[in-house]
Amino acid sequence: xxxxxxxxxxxxxxxxxxxxxxxxxxxxxxxxxxxxxxxxxxxxxxxxxxxxxxxxxxxxxxxxxxxxxxxxxxxxxxxxxxxxxxxxxxxxxxxxxxxxxxxxxxxxxxxxxxxxxxxxxxxxxxxxxxxxxxxxxxxxxxxxxxxxxxxxxxxxxxxxxxxxxxxxxxxxxxxxxxxxxxxxxxxxxxxxxxxxxxxxxxxxxxxxxxxxxxxxxxxxxxxxxxxxxxxxxxxxxxxxxxxxxxxxxxxxxxxxxxxxxxxxxxxxxxxxxxxxxxxxxxxxxxxxxxxxxxxxxxxxxxxxxxxxxxxxxxxxxxxxxxxxxxxxxxxxxxxxxxxxxxxxxxxxxxxxxxxxxxxxxxxxxxxxxxxxxxxxxxxxxxxxxxxxxxxxxxxxxxxxxxxxxxxxxxxxxxxxxxxxxxxxxxxxxxxxxxxxxxxxxxxxxxxxxxxxxxxxxxxxxxxxxxxxxxxxxxxxxxxxxxxxxxxxxxxxxxxxxxxxxxxxxxxxxxxxxxxxxxxxxxxxxxxxxxxxxxxxxxxxxxxxxxxxxxxxxxxxxxxxxxxxxxxxxxxxxxxxxxxxxxxxxxxxxxxxxxxxxxxxxxxxxxxxxxxxxxxxxxxxxxxxxxxxxxxxxxxxxxxxxxxxxxxxxxxxxxxxxxxxxxxxxxxxxxxxxxxxxxxxxxxxxxxxxxxxxxxxxxxxxxxxxxxxxxxxxx
Length: 714
Fold this sequence. Notes:
The protein has helices at 2-17, 25-57, 67-70, 310-313, 662-673, 681-713; strands spanning 191-204, 207-213, 223-224, 228-230, 241-253, 258-266, 287-294, 298-307, 325-330, 335-340, 346-353, 355-363, 375-379, 384-391, 395-397, 400-406, 424-430, 447-452, 458-460, 466-469, 473-474, 480-483, 485-493, 504-509, 524-528, 532-542, 548-550, 555-560, 566-570, 576-578, 590-591, 593-600, 612-616, 621-628. By secondary structure, it is an alpha+beta fold. A six-stranded antiparallel beta barrel has the order 1-2-4-7-6-5. The protein has a five-stranded antiparallel beta sheet with strand order 20-18-17-23-24, with no helix packed on it. Strands 26, 27, 30, 31 and 34 form a five-stranded mixed beta sheet that branches. Strand 21 (473-474) and strand 22 (480-483) form a beta hairpin. The radius of gyration is 64 Å and the shape is elongated. It starts with a helix and ends with a helix.
């Protein structure tokens, strides 16, 4: 070490003191490598040198840097080299060598000697009595372990107390009898016995901790949850020996699935409480601590499936809870089991480990929406937990179910004196799916309702509109609804002024998804045809001989009482007038209404019939009227012949032309019978026409001539 240090200082002091100039890259690289290697060697040599100095300065005994950590570890092959806190050092470091009756004393420097009086085999089959004495000076053996302090209480189990009452313990062959409560959940205070192997021990801050393993019986597979400590101080610590245990259940936790036992382990050759000449207990220590055994405590889970609204689903073949699947999840959201509901609406699973779970539906049953409720579940040992789960049935809430409209206007407003109120519809519900009217197949409905329209021709699905029938279906919120199935709607009574609509409406309520609310059936608009009819009028006048003479051109106007609308018809040459002249509808041209009929004509010699009323009240009705007009006699004319030309009443009368003189008449007759003469109007017209024709012909000829000249020049 000193040589390397001198070389290092000598070389570099000469290099830099003499200002050696490095003139090449290779020399520079060599210098850098040499510096790094020298530094590495120097550091490692320094560490080794420092450790050597530390050992030389100590007590001459090499101390491990990790001795304190190793003291806490369980070493299965044998105990660590440690000091016995209550007896002279006499424990074989291998944990299985020979041990004799040890005698001697511990001096102030901590050195100890032991005389071997007997030995045990490596298997730990037999052990002799141990003896020894403590140091008269009263030095605490804990001081022999470096770094330990008298006031350090780490590793001390407060639940384990040394047993002072050791009278009655028997030294002899152990029975290793196994008693068990594994078939049941043990209760606090239950006792279990069996065998266990004591492998070794270690000193933890002056306290001996024993390592045990291979429990039989109820403690099989158990783990130590508190240190296994000495129960008989001053007796020898056992190791590498199969021993007998007696355990008392002190805590039973079926939820977390474990049982804690307070264990007392008795090795072969355990002390009986007898004290040797040196005042120490003869034999080996009993040891004890707390051991936890995890057990698979099982319980059972039973599920009962129900409809959340049985008023909708009971007796309905379109709803069934069979086939619903629930997942049982642990608190880490891992699927543990799948539960399927059977035809009885239940399912049960056994051998579930105790603990906390939750249920969540994975697949809803037929006709039901998915149950979104999360059901917490706690499985308790040897108990059957019952859970009630519910599914909401799928249904179709509906308010307005039927709306009538007038076929004339296309809206839900009546025409004429008709009314959309009072129409009755029979609504039939079937708990099955049908595409044709089930009544034609003799299938009876599940429920039937007779509903009546209001003044707007509407029916809402509630009791206010129900005339008769079964109870309505309601959701849990009190809203009228329709279950899955088929609805048949048919008008059974027409409102006033309308014809009965015999159309059969067939609709289905089906489930489109796993949602509770569907809208597969909505309101239906029903066409309503108003009643129509016609009126026919025969108009005549009686002659002196009593014969009826038809009158042509007599006008009759119909004025609606409800709307004021006017319709006018006129008699033909046969004296007949019919509202079919209006050409509105083949069923009739006057709707359900009352009309005032007024007459008009241009026969001054005849009177006017007073206004009268007519009512159309039935479909296809034709009302016939024969109306006679009385002759009105002028004061200075008797039996004046009727005019041959009919005059429209609205046009004013034309003034009569004055009668021509006889001379003018004769002159006209002569002109008609002779050729035209000069001065006649006819001759003048002919002359003018001839002149216009000649001029036109001349213009045409001139145009043709100039056209030829033009083309010749060009």
